Amino acid sequence: MSPKDVSLQALVAPIAEDLASMREILGGALVSDVPAVSDMLDHIARFRGKQLRGALVLLNASARGRSSAQLVDQGELPVVAAIVELIHLATLVHDDVLDGADKRRRVASVNRRWDNQVAVLLGDLIYARAFHLSTTLRSPLVSQLLSQITQEICAGEIEQAAGRYDFQMTPESYERIATAKTGALYGAACELGSRYPDGSEFDGAEMRSFGREIGLAFQIIDDLIDLEGDEEVAGKSTGTDVEDGKVTLAVLHAYKDADPAVQAAIRDAYTLPELEGVPGGRLKYLLESCDLEPGKAKARARAAELVESGRKRLTRLPEGTARTALYTLSEFVLERRW
Amino acid sequence: MSPKDVSLQALVAPIAEDLASMREILGGALVSDVPAVSDMLDHIARFRGKQLRGALVLLNASARGRSSAQLVDQGELPVVAAIVELIHLATLVHDDVLDGADKRRRVASVNRRWDNQVAVLLGDLIYARAFHLSTTLRSPLVSQLLSQITQEICAGEIEQAAGRYDFQMTPESYERIATAKTGALYGAACELGSRYPDGSEFDGAEMRSFGREIGLAFQIIDDLIDLEGDEEVAGKSTGTDVEDGKVTLAVLHAYKDADPAVQAAIRDAYTLPELEGVPGGRLKYLLESCDLEPGKAKARARAAELVESGRKRLTRLPEGTARTALYTLSEFVLERRW
């Protein structure tokens, strides 16, 4: 295991048991008696990733002194965590469709097209399964909250698509979109952990805000990593935002502070036709055409500010291993390079 | 208004008031304060079509002697009908994505790609809105039933995609897929109308079966219309199934009964590369390569059998204008050429 995995494991130690139940429930939810569907579900199991959102549900519940070992309703907590992960998984499957469409512009292939078509349907099926699972819970809270949050996520992604190549976008608009895309589900995970099954909205509000701030910070850092040329460090391909026309926070700041010539060069990096399809070409052009460091510093400072604000909220929680884990997790958000 | 529209209007006369409320609720559900989303929602309003599914909810409720004019819970009936229409609308938006992807193979265009990307997200948003609306109802029945049915629809579409170009498919497999694609939501609409808010599963079972049979018959006829060369009569482009590799009931019968040479010609109609992109080319080749009439007659006979079976179930309902309307509607399914 990499040091990263080790520290993540330590992070979730207080909820190891419920996390194991969550994974079992998740596995059980990703099966089908339709062979074609079953194949696809096996295929996408690899998307499951770090399962931070599910962990946030359980850490928040644990911080409130609740776990599945207690009252019957709280035996539902791993189900709630699994539902949050299923919603996230469905968004990933549909992101993959969109990436797939992108790739397909270069290599048109009927086979790819079927995959793509099936992926849209599979994402729909996973959303529906998540909602159906939520209707089996005693409290309607999860159904209500997650069907609302899913709308916020989609609206944010649509707004982002509509705002491509908009170099005049305000930092406020960027943050509203990034909060909807990423912060909203982090916030819902924390809120559900805090108040499920019968806590008041007030009980969940503080930790929802924590989740939304941490999630926004996570997205800001994610966008910064995409601007790093080093795919080795990132552990994934970088420069995808500039290729997709996504003007992220660091670039928005850099553009605002640049003189007209540099602004033109930044726009060129995103739009010059001859850079289309050149691997890493647009990012390379962007990094050469302006000094992004001041903009990146501003973005990093904003992420730190958000994490700091989130951490203050943690002091409202009783001291304990779960609260410490949430504190450490918020550190990860800033320090991660992955 | 065309004669068709006139007769459809007569059909829904018994529920005109609730249908108007449904359309109002539907209109209210298709708004957003995110401008980009709002534009898209206005754009897709044109998909709303005949709203037969919503009408089935209300006709079934009316046949049970219930309408929004009565008990408070039944004031929710137009909301239930609107939710069913929203689920249908979301499936249409995602079908459109898949068609869009198809078209894009020929005319690659970034603009089309954004539309496509946004359409995936918009369909997701409409699904989520439908589920959220269902969580506002007093009874969890709609949330439970429709999240289950949505999974059946998606699984059916995935199975259909996986079964493309499968000329050995059994009529049973075709019917299972067509029932999932179309019958399932018809059945859910009828079941919800029959038992919402607090009827037993037994109360809904008979009319669910009616809906699934009528829906399957509707799909069989729809597939037959796609095999008619005459787009004028069909009022939409035909031959799309053979282009997409969908082997529908009439073709399955024709293939089973054909000698090896004709079977090879049928396969050619679906697969010959030189027919790719030739408007109507594959359908023309198919119609020339074999006599589809016997297969079409078998398919039409099966649809008639299903409608007949559904009609028998209607005798369980109290006599009245709503029951008569459901009877007439089942006639439409067989006689429609649109």
TrEMBL record, chains A, B:
Its EC number is 2.5.1.30. Belongs to the FPP/GGPP synthase family. GO terms for biological process: isoprenoid biosynthetic process. The gene is hepT. InterPro entries: Isoprenoid_synthase_dom_sf, Polyprenyl_synt, Polyprenyl_synt_CS. Keywords: Magnesium, Metal-binding, Transferase. This is Heptaprenyl diphosphate synthase component 2. Pfam families: polyprenyl_synt. Its cofactor is Mg(2+). One of its GO terms (molecular function) is metal ion binding. It comes from the Bacteria.
